[in-house]
Amino acid sequence: MAGGLTYTATESTAFSTAEIYGKALCELGEKHPEVVALTADLGKSTKIGMFGEKFPDRYFNVGIAEQNMFGMAAGMAKAGLVPFLSTFSVFASLRSADQLHTDICYQNINAKIIATHAGTSFGQAGSTHHAICDMAVARSIPNLTVICPADGLETYNAVHAAYDNFGPYYIRINRGFDRVLYDTTDYGFEVGKAVTINEGSDITIIACGSCVFQAYQAAKFLETNDGLKVRVLNMHTIKPIDKEAIVKAVMETRRIITAEDHNVMGGLGSAVAEVIVEAGKGCAFKQLGIQDKFAPIGLHEDIMSTLGIDQNGIIDAVREVMGKDFELDDDWDDEA
Amino acid sequence: MALTKQEWLELEKQAHELRKLCLDTTFWAGSAHIGGGMSVMDMLAILYYKYMKYEVENPTWEDRDRFILSKGHAGVALASLVCHVGFDDKEKLKTFNLSNSTMGIHLDSNKVKGVDASTGSLGHGLSIALGTALAAKVLGKDYKTYCILGDGECDEGSNWEAAMSAAHFKADNLISFVDRNKCMIDGPTEEVMALEPFADKWRAFGFIVKEVDGHNFNELAEAIDFALENKGAPVMIIANTVKGAGVDYMEGDYKWHYGALNDEKYEQAKASLEKYYAQRCARAEKEGI
What we know:
The complex is a heterodimer of chains A (336) and B (289). Chain A has 336 residues and is α/β, with parallel strands linked by helices. Chain A contains 14 helices and twelve strands. In chain A, helix 11 crosses helix 12 (268-279). The mean pLDDT of chain A is 94. Chain B has one domain: Rossmann fold (3-Layer(aba) Sandwich). Chain B contains nine helices and nine strands. Chain B has a five-stranded parallel β-sheet with strand order 2-3-4-8-7, sandwiched between helices. Chain B has a two-stranded antiparallel sheet with strand order 1-9. A two-stranded antiparallel ribbon of chain B has the order 5-6. Chain B is globular and about 50 Å long. Chain A binds chain B through residues 34, 36, 57-58, 60, 62-63, 65, 67-81, 83, 98-99, 102-103, 106-108, and chain B through 62, 66, 68, 108-110, 116-118, 120-121, 123-136, 138-139, 145, 157-158, 161-162, 164-165, 168-169.
């Protein structure tokens, strides 16, 4: 989609991902009087409060009451408004899961959930504030589109796409500053279509969120030091997943690694595995992420390192998978 | 303003037709939530036959008054109502609860015309209703939002989140009711999880509370008239009702939360509803002006 961002990429590094979200939402608010914003006492933390400062009559802080916030948003959307809701991902996906499921997704209403502090990005706050199963919850609710942007400018695109497309959206973004992957919003962001960050034919890393930058760094390192051509796919849309890009990667590289800041059960890795199994094409496969345990506390980068979803962890995984054997089928050359 | 005798009798007539339809639908379906359907029916009748503005030919008319049945398990009553007022064909009620019907126990707002929200998971309706009420203020519209909660569902904490918000945002265009039939699936509300002092709880959360006999149209009308005039705070009308109202063997018995009817029970219920209707008309004749 066309970007239309008025500040430069260099300036964007000065903003946290959530701040870029706040600016994108304010832009939507300027253009569209039906856009309203709701939060549950996290206006400052999620940056949705920036909308409230500009449009106080269209901003509803419901206090620490997520269930009510989701229900209210459903009622507002039913009446023709376009509500954006923000709270931490762990609360958006679990505390108000029943309202997300029934009020928003079952009714298939036009509400947009921008869930912040995703994965382990609120590191020191610990597991009460880590969202390690939100994508699993969100992905399994019908009608809900699930997006995990790689950085601030991709978040900008995702927020605009959420407005442009009718229906419930769940967009999970990190707390604080993300490593910057894109220097422009004009790179062809399209919901449900993976973006190839690095071309490669030896192995493919399919990543989302903060792992995309790490995967890209790993690919560059491996090209220089191991002579490997590593394809990196930014799978920003977890649902609907880009099946075509996954099967193409299987057929062309035969080795797949997924990387996500989320439990390996139910998130990106599971979604990719489902596609691979259904395609019936053999490949070596490894899932990086949180291995079905609660994460330690710490700085986000430190947790990512401990979990093996940073550059070094991904490099190790690539080397391991390059040495893996797998059973070739007879259809190696058939069409994907 | 008190109802005229003519208005009162007309409402009695419509409520009687609705109760009969609800009974028939339960019989056709084999079983349904008839106890709570019968207790809430007078509220549905007065809202749709006296107060609410809506167009059956244009169910999504943006200026219509909204109605959210938070106690979504009373879908058998709401299904009867939307068909009786003309949103859909009464024949469709013969499919209620059957496989692949558009009308299940809990009505789907995307499938049943005239239904403003898909409810059934309890403790959701008041938040949704608050959302539609506040949307009216954002959009500069003067429609009202009506919401009916069950008393048992008031155990859900989400209702009290919504209550706090309704008062905080001064949702005076939201008019809520509790169908206080004092029963829930496992027993009387006060035995399963005590709600009293119930009115005080709503008052403490910032509502103006009116307590009425939920089977007396005159009392319901006075409370709704008050709510429509009221400014600055949401109103809660606690409607004291009888579970299974009108069917003598169901009345006040929590075991009729969900029930099945055989031929004998069906005939007995029909006769009981006629007797109940006669008594209610006699009261309207006597007390109406």
